[in-house]
Amino acid sequence: MDEEYDVIVLGTGLKECILSGLLSVDGLKVLHMDRNDYYGGESTSLSLVQLWKRFRSNDKPPELLGSSREYNVDMIPKFMMANGTLVRVLIRTGVTKYLNFKAVDGSFVYNNGKIYKVPATDVEALKSTLMGLFEKRRARKFFIYVQDYEDDDPKSHEGLDLNKVTTRDVISKYGLEDNTVDFIGHALALHRDDSYLDEPAIYTVKRMKLYAESLARFQGGSPYIYPLYGLGELPQGFARLSAVYGGTYMLNKPECKVEFDTDGKAHGVTSEGETAKCKKVVCDPSYLPDKVKKVGRVARAICIMSHPIPNTNDSHSVQIILPQKQLGRRSDMYVFCCSYAHNVAPKGKYIAFVSTEAETDHPETELKPGIDLLGPVDETFFDIYDRYEPANHDEQDNCFISTSYDATTHFESTVQDVISMYKKITGKELDLSVDLSAASAAGEDA
Questions:
Q1: pTM of this prediction?
Q2: pLDDT digits (tens, 9 = 90+) for 130-175
Q3: How far apart (Å, rounded) are the C-alpha atoms in residues 203 and 167?
Q4: Please, what is the angle between helix 133-148 and helix 201-218, to 10°?
Q5: Could you give the domains of the chain?
Q6: Among 184, 163, 164, which Cα is nearest to 174's?
Q7: Spatial CA neighbour of 334 closest among 352, 356, 317, 313
């Protein structure tokens, strides 16, 4: 391999494939390698036989579960916000033409042992059984304030500088109860812990507006969309994009070893005795284990069922967020469910995931509050994996390492990592100014 590449990308996880596509579109010369013989890395989707092989070694799945090929079980299950950053990236790059999306039926929150639909607007606040009569009125006023808030219209600010006052200050102005604050912060604004309460309120208001705008986009029961045939389609879509713009792909390349010069800068990757030269390396944490630090673990249950989750209006696809306070935990728990409606299982079958940041070594016990919401389950698989973050200085070694996927069942944190890496690699902001009416086309199956 005599030619030199601008960037060599190692691993075909979703983050790496998005970056590969974006950098190729920018005109950089990209070589993309993976030790696996399939796309997706940690974020791949598995058939039933592959799922059994991964978690039950040589056992065969029971025939009553249906055809293995009809299953596409995500290893990192996440929904997309219909107006969110990932959808903007998909439209900006044209990857929408490789994929079909469908709206997700429901978005729910766990409160005092029950599941409630997440109210996202003033109208929904008045209808919600989550709050008493007086609290509904207070919440309605708060939602109207958020809906009407515009950065460049001081009249809509009601005398508050949201860049200076905290979320706690704004919430106390409206006198909202703790349970209401809980669902607003965790199920609407999608914060992962309560530290947001002491941060500038502008972040929470913008997140709430994103939720409401996404909900309005398809007039569905949730703000989320999800690709038909599962998330494994996404890395392949970005791989095709990269190839269209001249990117080169090599799967099944064992022992991808990053080579460093005497100054400690990455300048190539060796596999099977051949070295490809490059200026920069992009990879997931598994390719450079000595340049990352462990920051946590995700506990997860994968459940195959023959019915929708009870108390979700028979939704074929749904997200339920269990805020940390409701469970007496330090981190939220997430339930993700999809079914044959999104072509990820045979007719009549549902796949549910329960995930959280692990706080003990007993995922079965930790995940029980989420699993208890599912009703009868045909098969359950438990998994626990480490989360890593880069510990290197990319300006010194030219290595750009993604963070591991967290427990959330939506893509907002994932895409922020990609955007941050893109800026470090190229030195410029990613332009995501797109016509979001195209998003409706992307989700016209919704």
A1: 0.90
A2: 888 999 999 999 999 999 999 889 889 988 899 999 999 999 999 9
A3: 8
A4: 90
A5: 4-43+232-293+388-428 (3.50.50.60), 56-105+294-387 (3.30.519.10), 118-218 (1.10.405.10)
A6: 184
A7: 356
